[in-house]
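Please decode residue identities from the backbone states below.
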């Protein structure tokens, strides 16, 4: 079966990264099963990614509820809001 060079390279990088993480953990005298550590890190990363996506969706919905998303009635689109104004909306969202 053919594997592209980039696929082979990425696979080698993944193995090297896992080895380096495991060595770092061992360096600090922490005993751990390498396979279980890699599973836990993958699970943690997936949880982070899922939470980030949920947060972006929630914030987009918040903006939509506030009628800031491309609403011709307010005279500007979402992209025309300045940084300070957007920062205020983010702070309001996080306080809810």
């Amino acid at each position: 079966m053919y594997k592209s060079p980039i696929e082979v390279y990425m696979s080698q990088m993944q193995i090297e990264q896992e080895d380096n993480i495991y060595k770092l953990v061992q360096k600090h005298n922490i005993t751990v099963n390498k396979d279980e550590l890699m599973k836990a890190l993958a699970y943690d990363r997936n949880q982070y990614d899922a939470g980030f996506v949920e947060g972006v969706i929630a914030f987009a919905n918040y903006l939509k509820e506030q009628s800031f998303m491309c609403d011709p009635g307010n005279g500007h689109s979402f992209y025309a809001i300045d940084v300070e104004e957007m920062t205020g909306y983010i702070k309001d969202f996080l306080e809810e």
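Observation: The mean pLDDT is 78.
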